[in-house]
Amino acid sequence: MSNVYCPMPFVTLTIHPGNFISRCMMSLDNMGPIDLNTYSNDAFQTLRANQLAGIWDEKGCETCFRKEQEGQQSQRTKWLEREEKYLRETGIYKNNQNIVRNKIHHLYMNFSNTCNFKCRMCGPHFSNSWITDYKKLSNHFSWINYKVATLEDMYRKQVDVDKFLNEYGPELADLRQIWITGGEPFMDDSIYKFFNELSKYVNLNKIAVTINTNGSKLNVEDLNKLDKLLTLHINVSVDATGKFYNYMRGNNFTFIELDKIIRQLTILSKTQQNLLVTVNGAFQIYNLTNIREFFYWANDVLNETDAGHIEHRVLSGPRYLRARNAPEALKRESIKQVEKLQKEFPNQFYLPDILKELNKEQNDVDIERFINWNKKLDELRQQNIYDILPDLHKNWQLEGYVL
Ligand SMILES: C[S@@+](CC[C@H](N)C(=O)[O-])C[C@H]1O[C@@H](n2cnc3c(N)ncnc32)[C@H](O)[C@@H]1O
Ligand code: SF4
After folding, report:
1. Which of 7, 99, 169, 211 is at 20 to 30 A from 254, Cα to Cα?
2. DSSP 3-state of 145
3. pLDDT attached to residue 139
4. Which pLDDT score is estimated for 1?
5. Which atom of ligand 2 is found nearest the CA of 115?
6. Which mutation among 70, 122, 129 tests ligand 1's pocket best, with the greatest number of atoms within 8 A of CB?
7. Does 334 reside within a domain?
8. Cβ burial, residue 179 (10 Å; 0-12/13-18/19+)
9. Closest-lying ligand 1 atom to the alpha carbon of residue 321
10. What pLDDT does residue 188 have?
11. Which of the listed residues 130, 179, 184, 212 should we mutate to test ligand 1's pocket, taking the one with most ligand atoms within 8 A of CB?
12. What's the gap in Å between 184 CA and the centre of ligand 2?
């Protein structure tokens, strides 16, 4: 097996929120329209052949490539290690290494880029609410790069789910797992309609489903409509507690409201047998000193003690939001918090990568970009970073940065 091989382009199908097929959810690279031919078109054949031959597609697989260069876990390495955990069987990777027409075992399903939030680290490719701010920021900063090809690419996108199922439904007999993100998957009833239709092609009780959601539109009682699924994993994106939450996630939906919804989910999971609830965050410059509070809060709402249902991934981009760029004093404070968490929760999977991130060097260009970009965004959103992280600029100044 080549050391750049990734199972995803071989055994998964990704319906991207931008209404195209991509190789996986970490990539914004458009592999073709949502029709049956795309799964084995020239772009897929070249990608698969290159991966088997040991050639990285550094641009299309940039997120994983960069993470691995930094010595962190990437989705590729996770998938390689977790065949049995993700697909409940081994041998699937080995038996699906053709250049054309492998069997689809996993589906990344998305319905649109429609979202009511505009989280600071996200962008218009996943949230149409971001489009206006993004355009204004682009007028100020020529270097802005959310990996969105052009401004023309930015409008609301909607996947034609009926067409997708008409074409791919008969190909989904080997499906074992679906991950749904978006956009915000609970903006409307697309999810429920989708599973109704999908049940014509596959037996739902063989499918494990994970849904990432911002939680704000989730009607917890409706989840019993999905009780036929083998497992239903609701992964609520939180990032941080209290004032950090509102500032980072760009909506008036309050942290108290979110807290209430997650507690309802935890209660439901005691009776709805297939339901698993987790919370997630992306570790970055905004929430680096909130991590201990976040873990404590999450344990409390999830009614657990070992932080086993918390995902706190290191943000891979945009570069200027990376925690490594924070002032050294805040990084030291964060390191202390993480080291305490490691003692309290020695099996927590995500903490080692967070420590690695905190031990990386700042980048002058990224710091300058962050300061200018964030100032403009604060202006557009009538918010103020000084209310959230009052020590940020003061400490940079002490370190000699001219702000
Ligand atoms: C794009 S969202 C879509 C689903 C849903 N709206 C939500 O927020 O969970 C999927 C996940 O990506 C995370 N995310 C957004 N921008 C990110 C970035 N730049 N780096 C890492 N994760 C990011 C979100 O916090 C969320 O957990
Ligand atoms: S809620 Fe999800 S899709 Fe919406 S802006 Fe935030 S991360 Fe992006």
Report:
1. 211
2. coil
3. 87
4. 79
5. 4
6. 122
7. no
8. buried
9. 19
10. 96
11. 212
12. 7
Cβ neighbourhood burial of 105 (10 Å; 0-12, 13-18, 19+): buried
With a threshold of 0.90, does the pTM exceed it?
Answer: yes
For residue 38, what are its two tokens? Answer: 């795309």
With a cut of 50, list the residues of the chain below it in pLDDT: none
Interstrand relation of 310-314 and 208-213 (parallel, antiparallel or unpaired):
unpaired
**According to the model, what pLDDT value does residue 305 have?**
93
Q: 236 C-alpha to center of ligand 2: Å?
A: 11
Nearest ligand to the CA of 28 is 1
Q: How far is the CA of 319 from the centre of ligand 2 (A)?
A: 18
CB-based contact 116:129 (threshold 8 Å): yes
Bridge partners for 233 per DSSP: 210, 276
Give pLDDT, residue 167: 94
Structural domain for 296, as ranges: 8-111+160-315+340-361
The total of structural domains in the chain comes to 1
Residue 381, in any domain of the structure: no
Q: Which residues contact 176 (CB under 8 A, 6 or more apart)?
A: 87, 88, 89, 105, 106, 206, 207, 208
CA angle 212, 218, 221 (to 5 degrees): 120
* 179 C-beta closer than 6 A to ligand 1: no
CATH number of the domain that residue 354 is part of = 3.20.20
Q: How far is the CA of 118 from the centre of ligand 2 (A)?
A: 6
Query: For the segment 183-227, what is each residue's pLDDT rounded down to a tens digit?
Result: 999 999 999 999 999 999 999 999 999 999 999 999 999 999 999
Residue 201 lies in a domain: yes
Residue with tokens 């990224």: 366
Specify if 121 maps to a domain. no
> pLDDT tens digits, residue range 81-133?
999 999 999 999 999 999 998 899 999 999 999 999 999 999 998 999 999 99
Q: What is the pLDDT of residue 147?
A: 54
Per-residue pLDDT, 144: 81
Is the beta carbon of 213 within 6 A of some atom in ligand 1? Answer: yes
pLDDT reported for residue 145: 64
- Determine the residue of 125, 128, 184, 316 to mutate for testing ligand 2's pocket, defined as the one with the most ligand atoms within 8 A of the Cβ atom: 184
